[in-house]
TrEMBL record:
InterPro entries: AhpD-like, CMD-like
Span of domain Carboxymuconolactone decarboxylase-like: 28-106
Molecular function terms from GO: peroxiredoxin activity
Name of the protein this chain belongs to: Carboxymuconolactone decarboxylase family protein
Highest taxon listed in the record's lineage: Bacteria
Length: 117
């Protein structure tokens, strides 16, 4: 696993476990809501993850961007689709999204290299 991916996934898992050690019912419900929202429904998982990625880029949350990039990759988003996702995020979010776009491309490249795509 690439360094960016390993560091992100390891830290996220460690801190989520730590949070759940003392989480109250509301925090646990919020985490569960996040999980169930991205399940298949009227929209499929792939579409929901693409929407999540665009929103994360526009909101400029690097952790969220990495998370949704991984989920998009797992859902089978291809390079052409990813380029359109990036275009929409930049169009909606404006030039302030460009630094996050750079890091997103770097992370996407690492995901792609890892799988040999």
């Amino acid at each position: 696993m690439g360094k960016l991916i390993e560091e992100f996934n390891s830290y996220r898992e460690k801190m989520n476990d730590r949070i759940m050690e003392t989480a109250n019912t509301n925090i646990k419900r919020f985490f569960a809501l996040d999980t169930t929202t991205y399940a298949n429904g009227a929209l499929d998982v792939k579409t929901k993850e693409m929407l999540g990625l665009v929103a994360s880029m526009v909101l400029r949350c690097d952790d969220c961007i990495k998370y949704h990039l991984g989920k998009c990759f797992d859902a089978g988003v291809n390079h052409d689709e990813m380029n359109e996702i990036f275009m929409i995020a930049n169009l909606v979010g404006g030039s302030i999204v460009i630094p996050h776009y750079r890091r997103a491309v770097e992370y996407w490249d690492e995901l792609s290299l890892e799988s040999g795509v």
